[in-house]
Amino acid sequence: MNVAPAVDMDRVGAVLDRFEKGERSHLVHALQDLQSEIHYLPKEAIKAAAKYLDVPLHSAFSVATFYKAFSLVPRGETIIKVCLGTSCHIRGASVVVEDLRIGLGVGPGETTQDMKYTVEVVNCVGACALAPVVIANTRYIADVKPGTIVKIIEEG
Amino acid sequence: MYIYIDGKKISANDGETILAVANRNNIYIPTLCHHEALDDVGACRVCMVEITHKDWGGWTNLVTACLYPVEEGLVISTSSDAVRRSRGTTLDLLMARCPTSDVIRWMAEENGEISVRYEQVDDGSKCIMCSLCVRACEKMGCNAIGTVGRGHDKKIAPPFFENPENCIGCGACAAICPTGHIEMKDTRTTREIWEKKFDFVACEVCGEPVMTEEYRDYAIANRDLPADYYTTCSACKKKKLASHFDKVGS
Amino acid sequence: MGIANLKKLEARRSALHKAHENVKTQVRVCSGTGCAALGAFEVYDALVEESKKAGLPVQVELAPCGKDKDPIFVSLTGCQGFCQIGPLVHILPEDILYTGVKVSSVKDIVGKTLADGQVIDKLLYKNPEDKKRLKGRADIPFYKGQELVALEGCGSVAADSLDSYIASGGFSSLAKALKMDPDQVIAEVEKSGLRGRGGGGFPTGRKWRSCVNATGDERFVICNGDEGDPGAFMDCCIMEGDPYRVIEGMIICAHAVGSSTGFIYVRHEYPRAVERLSLAVKTCEENGLLGTKILGSDLNFDISVARGGGAFVCGESTALMRSIEGSVGEPRAKYVRSVQRGFRDKPTVLNNVETFACVPSIINEGSDWFASRGTEKSSGTKAFCLVGKVVNTGLIEVPMGTKLRDVVFGIGGGIIDGRPFKAVQTGGPSGGCLGENYLDLPVDFDALAEAGSMMGSGGMIVMDDRTCMVDVAKYFLNFLMEESCGKCVPCREGVYQLHALLDKLSRGEGEPQDLEKIQRLGKEIQVSSLCGLGKSAPNPVLSTLKNFREEYEAHVNDKRCPAGVCRDITTFTIDPDKCTGCLVCKKACPPDAISGEKKQVHVIDQDKCTQCGACRLVCKFDAVVTS
Ligand SMILES: Cc1cc2nc3c(=O)[nH]c(=O)nc-3n(C[C@H](O)[C@H](O)[C@H](O)COP(=O)(O)O)c2cc1C
Ligand code: SF4
Ligand code: SF4
Ligand code: SF4
Ligand code: SF4
Ligand code: FES
Ligand code: FES
Ligand code: FES
Question: Tag placement on chain B: N or C end, fewer CB within 10 Å?
Answer without folding.
Answer: C
